[in-house]
Write a structure and sequence with these properties.
heterodimer; A: Rossmann fold; 2 domains; five-stranded mixed sheet; globular; B: alpha/beta; 10% strand
């Protein structure tokens, strides 16, 4: 029987189950001892002890770098950055150490490390606590990047990431933390790099991930009333990226809209658009469209923050434009 | 020293891929410190020569092969140029190419030992230049607060590439900084391998028995350029010649052995000729290796 739990509970359950499964696994991060500022680690230190659920100093380079050091010496590790924006603070550790240690040392090490880093805009946290930095890691071979959109995926992808022998940057979206959803019982593991079909449709392929999946589903209802049926695919992250599944869909619909909360300019959708253009231009009946944040930093004001990130209407308009801009 | 001379010969012949940062002058620190380790211990080396790996017992032909870019190297043909040589079975964990990147890794290796209830100690080498990276602050603080089995070993040769220590460091001695992290700070003559061995044994014992980290500053000298081909226009020639004459760690050990052993010269000659033969054979063996195909670049990106 599936149970209904929140996205936050999904994270806590995944961490607890994996700490239980591997008695040498460690989890380190800021404020995780009392449960964490977002409540992701509630009860874990009491259950698994201070030597395994480790409160760290405010030292992001240390958190990720020590995670790499523990991982290459055989300890499965979750290293938490309190906000995904802090990858910039620990960039050398994420981009160079975690992603490249195995490769540059001739494949002699495995790096079973998860960097858990909540991303996204929520409630006016400002320009340095609201970003979705996944585009940075299109240029980080060696790293996997995962952005779950539902409680079930959150739990299953986090468990898969922890069990993987490669470094995985897992970025839950903060605006999804209180969202509830059904999660299968038992050992629910979702493989990395497989796109999820969230809605079938014949007219436009919409590739959306993280918090943009529920927004795309809302857009789909509006568009359906106009007779436009969109197919929504969630790649569940950007590395590995399920291009085959996206291109298969585009080959049927002939139209592609890419939706993410990160900015359009320099955003993660650019690579998706480029690859689809390279591999599937012959199927396209209209130009590819991208929906994402404006090309400005995210304002501190909660009101203006929402003006910068994409909304349901932006997706509706992009799909309409994609449908009307061509003759068939 | 003999291994390094073999490498410099290969470089003179134009065989090497990449760069080499010679370690001549700093052998005393590296050999003395590594002799204090046990087999299960972890090592994060610095980039001043390969005394670290030779002392730890890594096969010398494998080391040569890394510089030659051959498949027989530890990086299996990817090439290393000191920075990315690794040999996990001896606890040689590799090195961060960005200086100071090894500090947090060392803390992680120590956390790993704790998680696996092993008594392994992590020895982390770094230069006086690298001591100024912010990662040292983060890692030294965490290692002390968690009382982790780490030994921080600074090879202070007075030069960060070209910048002089006194122009770039806020304290006269790196060891002074230990107080800021609640750990002992020890200064030792890095040209005296026996003295280095003694202080590192004490630090390793303290770390292994749960006493936490120690910061050791070994005062040493760089006899060659930062990289081979470095004209060292920033250095005083007379001063460098004086260091080579008066501060050679090999002269120190020769003097000590002559004072301790009546037949020191004969014994040293035996060792020298045996090692020279081993080095020659290793170099010859390495040169029979081969470069990988271009497809090698796709290997080991992911596990």
């Amino acid at each position: 029987m599936p149970r209904t739990i929140t996205y936050t509970q999904a994270i806590t359950e995944a961490l607890a189950e994996e700490l239980e499964r591997d008695p040498t696994m460690i989890y380190l991060g800021e404020d995780i001892g009392f449960g964490g500022v977002f409540g992701l680690s509630k009860g874990l230190q009491a259950r698994f002890g201070k030597d395994r659920v480790i409160d760290t100093p405010i030292s992001e380079s240390l958190i990720v770098g020590a995670g790499v050091g523990a991982a290459i010496t055989g300890t499965r590790t979750v290293a938490e950055l309190q906000f995904a924006d802090f990858v910039a603070v620990a960039m050398d550790e994420v981009y160079n150490k975690a992603a490249k240690w195995r490769y540059m040392h001739g494949g002699q090490f495995k790096v079973p490390l998860v960097i858990l880093a909540p991303e996204g805009a929520m409630g006016g946290a400002g320009p340095e606590h609201s970003q979705c930095p996944e585009a940075l890691f299109w240029s980080a071979p060696g790293l996997y990047v995962v952005t779950p959109s539902t409680p079930a995926d959150m739990k299953g992808l986090l468990k898969a990431a922890i069990r993987d022998d490669n470094p995985v940057l897992v970025m839950p979206h903060k605006a999804l933390l209180n969202v509830s959803g059904e999660v299968p019982d038992g050992d629910h593991v979702v493989p990395l790099g497989q796109a999820a079909l969230c809605r079938e449709g014949r007219d436009v392929t919409v590739v959306a991930w993280s918090v943009m999946v529920p927004k795309a589903l809302k857009a789909a209802s509006t568009l359906a009333q106009e007779g436009i049926e969109i197919e929504i695919l969630d790649p569940r992250g950007i590395r590995p990226f399920d291009f085959d599944r996206i291109i298969e869909s585009v080959s049927r619909t002939g139209r592609l809209v890419i939706v993410h909360e990160a900015p359009v300019v320099g955003g993660p959708g650019a690579e998706v658009a480029a690859v689809v253009a390279e591999r599937a231009l012959m199927y396209l009946e209209a130009p590819i469209r991208r929906v994402g944040a404006l090309d400005v930093p995210i304002p501190q004001s909660a009101l203006l923050e929402q003006a910068v990130i994409p909304q349901v209407d932006d997706i509706v308009m992009a799909v309409r434009a994609c449908m009307s801009g061509v003759t068939t | 020293m003999l291994w390094e001379q073999g490498l410099l010969d290969m470089q003179a012949e134009g065989r090497l891929s990449g760069f080499y940062h010679a370690g001549r002058g700093q052998e005393g620190v590296q050999v003395g410190a590594i002799a204090a380790l046990r087999p299960q211990d972890y090592l994060l080396y610095a980039h001043r020569g390969c005394g670290y790996m030779v002392a730890r017992g890594m096969p010398m032909d494998v080391l040569y092969a890394d510089f030659l870019g051959y498949r027989e190297g530890s990086t299996r043909g990817l090439g290393a140029g000191i920075v990315h040589i690794a040999w996990p079975e001896l606890g040689i964990l590799g090195q961060s190419g960005t200086l100071g990147g090894s500090f947090p890794i060392a803390v992680g290796a120590a956390l790993s030992a704790r998680a696996h209830k092993s008594d392994a100690v992590t020895l982390c080498f770094f230069g006086d230049g690298t001591a100024n990276r912010g990662t040292f602050h983060e890692a030294a603080n965490a290692a002390s607060v968690w009382r982790l089995p780490v030994v921080w070993l600074c090879e202070n040769n007075g030069l960060a590439v070209s910048a002089r220590f006194e122009d770039t460091c806020s304290v006269r001695s790196i060891a002074d900084r230990a107080a800021g992290y609640g750990m002992p700070g020890v200064v030792v003559d890095g040209q005296d391998a026996a003295a280095v061995y003694k202080v590192v044994v004490e630090a390793v014992d303290r770390a292994r028995s749960g006493g936490g980290p120690t910061l050791i500053e070994a005062l040493t000298c760089r006899f060659r350029g930062h990289y081979e081909g470095d004209a060292q226009e920033y250095r005083d020639r007379g001063e460098l010649e004086q260091l080579r004459r008066e501060r050679d760690p090999l002269d120190v050990v020769v003097k000590q052995l002559r004072a301790a052993l009546p037949d020191a010269d004969a014994q040293m000659e035996l060792v020298r000729s045996r090692v020279a033969a081993e080095v020659t054979m290793s170099a010859a063996k390495a040169l029979t290796g081969s470069a990988p195909d271009k497809d090698r670049v796709f290997q080991y990106v992911y596990a």
